[in-house]
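User: Here's a chain of 280 residues. Predict its fold as tokens.
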Amino acid sequence: MYRKNSLFMCCLKSCSLIAFTLLYFAVGQVFAQPKDYYKPNPLIISSHRQPKELLLSVGYDKGLDLGASLSLPFNFIVFAKGNLNTFSYSRNESLEPRYTIYKNDYSWLSGIGYFVNRSYRFFNVIEMYSGVGNTSIDNFRHYSTSTSDDNDRFTKANYHTAFAQVNAIAAKNNVEVGLGARVSYNLYKDFEYYIGTPAITNKNTSDFSFVKFEPALSLSYLLLNFKGNIQLGVSVPLISDDTEIVELPGESFSVESYEDFYFFWRLSLQYIKQYDKRRR
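Assistant: Prediction complete.
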């Protein structure tokens, strides 16, 4: 028992160090990303322990995040979540003046999963998920040095997502430490950007896609039927299509590849409702 407790505390301290490191780099790097054409959603880490368990969550990741997850008989899971971001943020980027980005983005995900509760293992909850979703991007940037709207930069995109994910969770008393990894395939149907008015628009001539690997760390604390959670992760490009971008109306063509790294995070509060009254 002492060995297990020591191992759990060592893992908790190590994960906390990783979390603070990711947060440090996230604060510095998120601002440095040149475009907001991709929105990495936080991972689904429900940590179900038994069937007939409903988890409702509300979170913030610079947008409002709502989710629901229900465990079914035979340890299956169904889930759905949505994210809406209509906020504005001021940013600094290297080699560019300070600007404010105004967003009108939304996304949704839904799918199925399966969990295993292994009572006497260190990672005592294993979860597997797969699902699909859609994301709409609509934002523009206004620079602090600009005296008119002519230099505002607009980005509009719409893409479909399919993903597979696995989580390993160490749950001890009221504390949960989770490690998750997701592989997502993202297919862009519409993608365009322009400066000022859309008199000259850059847009894709055909569909293009890329594959992302997205590991994340989750830390939760359970109190009664409520659970506070923080999640930190990174989106790493694995495969990306070259896509042809046309500048209209002049019809000047260029070939682009979109392979940016993104950091993501979420703070959330979760409510757990158990229809089969077993002890978690």
